[in-house]
């Protein structure tokens, strides 16, 4: 009878698109490399996007990923937000995993991303040292 259960589980697994499975395993791998302290750091890196009450409720990296997905900050083909968070949180190890996924699974190379990076980063640098206008 145990064999029968496995056969039933088979079709469920195949229904998940390969890209989605790859994405889930990426998140799982990232989650395994995020400690409780890391999570606090990551949450504080994106505090503008997480209301403080909700931030306290996020206790695990899985929960954090789910929150980001719910708020359209993270998707199987949209990883730029977490790349940015890992970058400012000084987590090159996590960033490397995401970049590998992006280049191998999504087939998006750094060159394809240059346009978005150019628009994102200089604007941030431009305002960094200037006092805010009243």
Structural write-up:
- It is found in: Cytoplasm.
- Residues 22-100 form the DED domain.
- Pfam families: DED.
- The protein is mainly α.
- It has a domain at 18-108: Death Domain, Fas (Orthogonal Bundle).
- Helices cover 72% and strands 0% of the residues.
- Helix 2 packs antiparallel against helix 7 (92-104) and helix 6 packs antiparallel against helix 7 (92-104).
- The longest helix is centred in the C-terminal third of the chain and has 19 residues, at 110-128.
- The model is unreliable at 1-14 and 115-131 (pLDDT under 50).
Describe, in short, the structure shown.
The protein is mainly alpha-helical and 134 residues long. The chain is 72% helix and 0% strand.
Query: What is the residue-averaged pLDDT?
Result: 77
Question: What is the CATH class of the domain at 18-108?
Answer: Mainly Alpha
* Structural class based on helices, strands and sheet pairing: mainly alpha
Largest sheet data:
none
Output the CATH topology of the domain at 18-108.
Death Domain, Fas
- CATH architecture classification name of the domain at 18-108: Orthogonal Bundle
Number of strands: 0
Percent in helix: over 70%
- What percent strand? under 5%
CATH superfamily of the domain at 18-108: Death Domain, Fas
- Radius of gyration computed on alpha carbons: 18 Å
Order of helices and strands: HHHHHHHH
Termini separation: 73 Å
């Amino acid at each position: 009878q145990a064999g029968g259960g496995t056969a039933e589980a088979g079709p469920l697994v195949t229904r998940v698109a390969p890209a989605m499975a790859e994405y889930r395993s990426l998140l799982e791998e990232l989650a395994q490399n995020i400690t409780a302290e890391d999570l606090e750091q990551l949450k504080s890196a994106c505090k503008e996007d997480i209301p403080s009450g909700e931030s306290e409720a996020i206790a695990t990296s899985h929960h954090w990923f789910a929150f980001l997905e719910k708020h359209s900050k993270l998707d199987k083909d949209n990883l730029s937000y977490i790349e940015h968070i890992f970058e400012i949180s000084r987590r090159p190890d996590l960033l490397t995993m995401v970049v590998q996924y992006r280049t191998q699974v999504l087939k998006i190379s750094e060159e394809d991303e240059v346009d978005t990076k150019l628009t994102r980063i200089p604007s941030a640098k431009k305002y960094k040292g200037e006092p805010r206008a009243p």
